[in-house]
Structures are given as structure tokens and as C-alpha cells.
Amino acid sequence: MSLDFFDRTLSEWIAPGIFLGAFILELFFLLFFYFRLLFLKKTTETILEKPLTVCLCVRNEEDRIEHILQQLLTQDYGNYEVVVVDDFSEDCTIQKVGQLAKKYPRLKFTSISQETSFSEKMAINLALKAAHSEWVVFLRPDNELISPLFLKKVNDAITESSFLLNYTNQQAGKGFRNHCCRVERFTAFLSTAAYGLVGHKAFYNDSNVVFHKELYFEQSGFRGKMNAYYANLELVFNDSGKRKVSVLVDPETMIREERTCFPGDFSELVKKRLRINRQLGAGKRFVHFLEDLSKFLLWGAFAWLLITEPMNWLFITIPVVIVLFLQLFVVKTMTTRLNEAKIFLSSFVYMYIRPVLNWYHAGKIYILDKRNKWN
After folding, report:
1. 3-class SS of residue 292
2. Angle subtended at Cα 48 by Cα 133 and Cα 100, rounded to the nearest 5 degrees
3. What is the model's pTM?
4. Which of 77, 135, 177, 249 sits between 20 and 30 A of 262, alpha carbons compared?
5. Could you tell me if 61 and 97 are in contact, meaning their C-beta atoms sit under 8 angstroms apart?
6. pLDDT grade for 339, boundaries at 50, 70 and 90
7. What are the DSSP calls for 88-116, one per residue?
8. Mean pLDDT of the chain, nearest integer
9. CATH classification code of 41-174+205-263
10. Cβ 339 vs Cβ 251: under 8 Å
11. What does R_g of the chain's alpha carbons equal in angstroms?
């Protein structure tokens, strides 16, 4: 470091000041938010079986409905029910569910008899009204494999919190699209979990989230949210006030979805997350913006200082190395615990690319919304 590094005018302190401020912000987000994920405790087995309800909203799923229901109806757990709502299927989905219901009394089902604009939300509403248990979890019919201990582990992890967040991602497949979608969903889970543990709820996925059923009815369900086509229960979760969130990272409760990635799927995932963020309170939106801004400013100021003050490269590089090491440690630990080792490096890189993507897509959403408003 040059001896006159601190001998500057006020204007000459702008770039170093931005760099130092961004470094402090990055440390704050990593240590206060994300490092909490590294200390998640394993569940301890409990004797009492709390009543649980597993809900599925399905449409035209005759090819795989039996597969998922057989897994759910043979759980190593006694006190639960399965509720299926058929969203106006045009195939034999409801008939297959009816046949299984004759064999398994814990299976209940109903259906929507006509096509509606908001049928997905209506199906969720019907499922919650039909659920008899206090604790409810929604799953999707494209889940590839559900552990027989899924509900048992969930029961062991239920505490005084109102939400129990479990990991969900799509099954690893071939192609760049599949990889990108998995990385986006993994990093979105990290964000939801880290922010949720400090009371800053931002759910981007409503599948495999165990929650108190009464939370939904206390907020009058989807009232005022019916036109939000991009999300469902996530909107209700995020508006539930100061409710505690627990996070369970257990192989038995992780869900892998079997789905094909099409062009545009990755962009839709990013846009969904951004649209959900727009529905958050001003304080929460500012915190998310600040996290993105800190990464942008850190690297921007770092590059500027390296170019303008190459003699101070060591002093400038040390803070960046510290941040990279901490971020690398978090991503490596979580990809290992979530069995996502193949997306470790790309997830690490994506954490620093994501702010640019967020601002790019946020601009596109803003322009599109403005056009639609005047059309």
C-alpha cells in the first residue's frame, strides 16, 4: 500500500469510500443473513404425531397422478390426510383419484366443474377448506420421488413457527436451460431461507412449505390478489405479518420435480421473483435492493481502484478476497447439504451476476406494465 493512500482530498475519497461501504454491506448480508443457514440444527424425533394435510391441485395428470399418490398414501406416518382438487381436467385424472380413494380412506378429492380465469387459486382455496388439519403442505404432481419418512421428518421439525420451509428444485437433467433453472431456484431458496430466519419473509415458491391453515383465512385468502397471475400462496405467506419461519434441510424432506425446461422458463423464474418482490413492503424492497447494489458497487469500485491506483492492489484486493471466501463457503456448504454439488460453481458465480439480471428484467417488467396499462 502506498504511504500516501490516506492523504486525499474529499473528492478523492469517493471511490475508496464507496468501496469500503460496499464491503461493509456485503459482510453484513453474509454474516447476519446467510451465515444463519450454516447453523441449522437437525431435527429430533418426537413421539406425538400432529395432524397434517397434504394438498395437491392437479390438471390433466392421468399419467403420473397414481405415482405421486401411491408415495403419499404409504407414508410412515399415521395422523394425516391427502386432499386432491382436480382443476377441470380433460382426461381421466379424477377417475384415477376416485379409484385410489376406494382403497385409501385418508384420500379425499373434489373437482372444479368448469373453466375459470382464476381456477388455480380457486383449487387452492377448495383444498384449504377441505383440509381438517391445522398444518398444511401443498405439493405438485410432478414430484419425482417422495421419501416414506417425509411427513415424519416434517412432524419432528414443526415448532412454534408458523412456516416450515423445505427445499424444492427440479431434477437434474441435460441441457443448459435445466442447469440455469436449477441455479435460480437454489439461490432463491437461499434468499427465502436466510431472510425468513431473521423475520424478513420473501417466499418465491409455495410448494413444500408447511404452514398454519388459519393464516390463509385470517387474510381472507386471495382477496385482492386474484389478478396476480404469477404467484399464488407466496403472496399470502409474504403478507402474513410477523410470523416466524423455520427452515428444514433434511434429505427426507427435499423434493425433486420432474419437468422439462423450455425456452423462456429461466426468465420467467427471474420475473416471478421480481414481481413478488414488488409486492413486498417498502422496507423489505429496500433491503433486497441494497443487497444487489452492494455487489454492484463492490465490483465497480474495485475495478476503478485497480485501474486508477494499481500501486494499492494488495490493500484493495484483501476485502474482495474476504467477501469471496465467505460467499464461497456459504454456497459450498449449502450445495453439499442440499445435494446440489453439480451446481456449486455456477451458483457461486450467479450470486454476482444476478443483480445485473434483476435490474435488466425489472426494467423490462416496468416497460411492459406501462404498455399494458395504456392499452
Report:
1. helix
2. 50
3. 0.93
4. 249
5. no
6. very high
7. S-SSSHHHHHHHHHHH-TTEEEEEE-S--
8. 92
9. 3.90.550.10
10. yes
11. 23
